[in-house]
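Project outcomes to date are best conveyed with an example. Our students and postdoctoral researchers have been running inverse folding experiments weekly, and each run begins with a structure described purely in tokens. The record below, which covers 319 residues, was selected by the lab manager from last quarter's runs and is presented without edits.
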């Protein structure tokens, strides 16, 4: 059996044709200087600027390059998902294609995985060259993610990360979940998560893909990953418990209202009709919502048991 490659570098890209040659040469130089066998997996996420043609050209210059091209733009998480499936290295790295992540960090991050025993090492762009409109939302994102997950990382969204191979083969990345891979890894049982301050470069080519839409999706996905971490395999625990509580509260309140009316009627005391009391309708609403939540949990369990848990992406070409 052939010896496994030392490293795999997964590079998701979208309209980054100007930077690919420089990035490939940089990774190749670092790998050769440190005597590492390697592969570069470039995942073209539906680029329209000639990026795929550049990947094909670079394949002739660097045999270690492998390419995956999507038929349309699916997003960074889909690119990482397919890149992770293809990766064969002992340690797997991810980095953006815009040259803001430095391949010079690879040897030390690899050492932290192999010698210090980390399952995942995340880069921390302590000094950033991004505009303020991107830095401040990112700081708030990271604060929220730390509180929700309990993982003490400063920069969840840093594109430069290193993984033990078994980590990336054990998680599934979708939506905007690439921001929260450390949380997915922790949920999968990989709790040795480290951090390294990394050099952050100014953007040399192209434009940032960051926008308000990504902020909104990021927060929604944080709620999703938090819920999935606790109740993903057993949605009945959440919906069933909440539904049962609401049903019992509504039922007990209804019984109390009816018993109170009967007591006052038996003792010839002033009373109001049951349907004239707003609390009665609140109780009925609680019963209905309780039943619906319980059914939602039951249906979630049925879907969870029968789903294949696999995403299907249209891959246009491979080399």
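After processing, the design step wrote out the following sequence:
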């Amino acid at each position: 059996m052939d010896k496994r490659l030392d490293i795999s570098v997964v590079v998701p890209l979208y309209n980054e044709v100007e930077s690919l040659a420089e990035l490939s040469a940089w990774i190749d130089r670092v790998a050769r200087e440190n005597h590492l066998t390697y592969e570069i997996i470039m995942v073209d996420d539906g680029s329209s600027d000639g990026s795929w043609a550049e990947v094909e050209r670079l394949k002739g210059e660097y045999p270690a390059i492998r390419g995956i091209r999507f038929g349309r733009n699916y997003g960074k998480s889909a690119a990482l998902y397919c890149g992770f499936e293809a990766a064969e290295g002992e340690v797997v790295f991810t980095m953006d294609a815009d040259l803001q992540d430095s391949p010079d960090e690879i040897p030390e991050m690899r050492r932290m995985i192999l010698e210090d025993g980390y399952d995942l090492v995340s880069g921390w762009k302590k000094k950033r060259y991004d505009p303020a409109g991107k830095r401040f939302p990112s700081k708030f994102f990271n604060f929220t993610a730390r509180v929700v997950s309990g993982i003490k990382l400063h920069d969840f969204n840093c594109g430069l990360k290193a993984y033990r191979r078994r980590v990336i083969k054990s998680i599934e990345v979708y939506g905007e979940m690439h921001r929260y891979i450390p949380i997915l890894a922790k949920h999968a049982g990989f709790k040795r998560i480290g951090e390294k301050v990394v050099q952050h470069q100014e953007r040399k080519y192209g434009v940032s893909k960051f926008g308000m839409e990504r902020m909104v999706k990021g927060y929604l996905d944080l709620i999703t990953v938090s819920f999935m971490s606790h109740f993903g395999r057993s949605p009945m625990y959440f919906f069933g418990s909440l539904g049962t509580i609401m049903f019992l509260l509504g039922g007990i309140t209804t019984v109390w209202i009816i018993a109170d009316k009967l007591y006052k009627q038996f003792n010839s005391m002033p009373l109001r009709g049951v349907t004239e009391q707003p609390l009665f309708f609140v109780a009925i609403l609680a019963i209905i919502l309780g039943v619906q939540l319980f059914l939602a949990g039951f249906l979630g369990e049925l879907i969870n048991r029968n789903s294949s848990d696999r995403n299907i992406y249209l891959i246009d070409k491979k080399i």
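Strands lie at 7-13, 38-44, 65-70, 91-94, 120-124, 161-164, 193-197, 315-318. The radius of gyration is 26 Å. The training component of this project remains on track.
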